[in-house]
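Task: fold both queries, return tokens.
Query 1:
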Amino acid sequence: MDDSKKYTKGFNLKEVILIIIATALLTSITTGVIIYNQNKLTKNITYKDLNKDTALKEFLSVYASLIDEYYEDVDKTAMLESAIAAMFKYLGEDYSTYMSKEETEALANRLKGEYKGIGITINSENVLVDVFLDGPASSAGLLSGDKVIAVDGKIVSQSSEITEIISSKSIGEKIRISVSRGDANLNFDVEVKKLYIPAVNYEMYENNIGYLKITTFSNTLKQQVSKALNDLESKGMQSLIIDLRDNSGGYLSAAKDVASIFLKKDDIIYSLEEKEETTIVKDETNEAKNYKIVVLFNGASASSSEVLIAALKDSYGAITVGVTSYGKGKVQQTHSLEDGSMVKYTSAKWLTPKGECIDEIGITPEYYVTFNPDTNIDEQLEKALELAK
């Protein structure tokens, strides 16, 4: 099933920085994790050094003894996975952990920012919930409410069958979608394309106030934000609300790229404080904006969201509204294992443009406004609209 959303209308080594929701992959708890420098693991430690490591020799001795002498057969892969997991358990930190091959692949797919599809979402009854503007399904004539009855002549009873058939097609290949619409049965030939996974929703409010909702910091976020801003600006936007509520992360490089759209060249975006040095990351582009910006966030706004919030607040002068953000200021480093799994561990902190670490503290908004789910009024957004005038 395509993962797009209806309202999307457009879209050095240390730059390879990821902010992910590690625990969300397992427990749906939104705790962002920053990852960078994927190939740095053995940069400062040679095999010669490891050969001199007494503790490692003892570990290998025990490993060899168990493989050779344990009374039952030993699954070496499973045992080593347990050993790696135990090392991270010893560290006693939530952000340093071992991720299985399946978890690693799920993370990569989530943050890739693009997918192969036709631009639809479909429910369990095979009814098209959304047909996205400018997508191949929309261009072919499919409409929300159409019920898919067959794909390439094959009768389908489950949405998973539709997803499977679409996934089996190559980019540029046509697929025939047969639907029922009212009393008619219709056929549409739709081209399978590479599409952005929507990461933004936007619209224009009264008083020429633009609204931009960022849902995740994917690999294609900058292109999507740029397209949205171009559209809003062409319609006379004079101020902008950026909504980062419930956004717990994505690529930190995406946060840097989006911040660079707004900040002036050489403005500080964030810093990385490692064991031996602190690196200041600045805007290197000539692009900048000068309209009023109001940033909305809440307690589930984490990691890359907080990086962007801090950059806009400290270096741009944006107004902030909502409640205190999550508070994720530690940075993880990754190392991919041969079986496709991955390990990650804390190796640095990121700092705001003012040099502050927000880990376990969060960012407190200038205007503290809570959200009441029992009312039909979004008081946080209402305050942002008031301040954006």
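Query 1 returned. Query 2:
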Amino acid sequence: MTLSATSFFETLNQKILSHKAKIAIIGLGYVGLPLALTFHKQGFSVLAFDLDTSKITALKKGHSYIKNISESAVQSLSQSPNFEASSDPEILKKADAILICVPTPLTKNREPDMSYVVSTTDTIAKHLQKGQLIVLESTTYPGTTDELMRPLLEKTGLVMGRDFFLSYSPEREDPGNPNFETASIPKVVGADDPHSRDLSVTLYEQIVPKVISVSSARTAEAVKLTENIFRSANIALVNELKVIYEKMGINIWEVIDAAKTKPFGFMPFYPGPGLGGHCIPIDPFYLTWKAREYGVSTRFVELSGEINTSMPFYVVDRLRDELDKRFSKSLNGTRLLIMGMAYKKNVDDIRESPSLVIYDLLKSKGAEVDYHDPYILTVPTTREHPTVSGLESIPLTQKNLAAYDAVLILTDHDSVDYKFLSEHSKLIIDTRNALHFLKEASHVAKA
């Protein structure tokens, strides 16, 4: 190791330990903003960079654009002399460490869309300074950090491990979960040289209770995929069991509640109308895509994805059957209310939400569809579901409910009055067991 590399390492390491390092965070969404707040709370100077000028404007004014993050927390951040927000990449030159929290979606062909990571890395390269640490937090396939990012950064003539440092540390946010926050969740870190790894471990040790160091960046990338594929596979299992047990007249929720009393060998997972969010519906496809490069099939992973993506169709089929059986009605011309556009309860996030898919399916069959969601008053523009964009949440009133032939509970927000909903609805398709408190309800069907 050259003297310059050792010198850069020691200088940055000391800055981190003394909390004098400036931390730049690229991407101020559901991962980046909590990260910014956590570093700032520990006394670090935070530089917020995002091309979305509306986010930067909101941060400067102290407004929170994420419902689970309080206005007071953002106000405290915006008023601090240790915080700066900008859409000008020149801000990155001031940073000692740059953390990347940008989207990694899928293309229409269900392949990794790395455009955000590539463009962000190119931007960093144009402003790269000797001695900086760059950490990718976005979920991705094994090899992204060393195969994609490193060459782009080294085009500058600077060398990883000598002139700059590079690592991967997967985000582990769970929006809407009151039991965990950024500061309480252990962090995994992987890098391909000792200095990059040690600096990253030291950095995250300042804000979380435990840091787990692994041997390489691609190992850390695989950790993130494994965590979410584990959830995807188990959710697919209970979704399949739900379909089977429904045919047998067995309540899957009752089965799970009883099974989870076993103190060993069982972990409860719950069915739903499909998978949503920024990780679980996407991560399996990142692995299957990369596995093809090695000539390896991923049959189990792909089967799980197929089951989960089929659930919106199952929900629509259950609704159609219930309408026909109870009212001799088809979906065409039927008035329907979707309860919840968010992908899970108590969040304002619609990314990959199965509600969007179900909405489009119902509209394609001629149904008139509205929605209610206390977290999403207006559906934002989405690339995959333009027909839903701009739709507004309707108030949950007795008069409004009387106008619908059926209600579909797709997201079980805690703030909804489900007793009121039950009392004033003709038919409810409950995909989340939100009406579990009803012992007998002839107008409720599980799906």
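Both queries returned. Flag for query 2: The chain has a mean pLDDT of 94.
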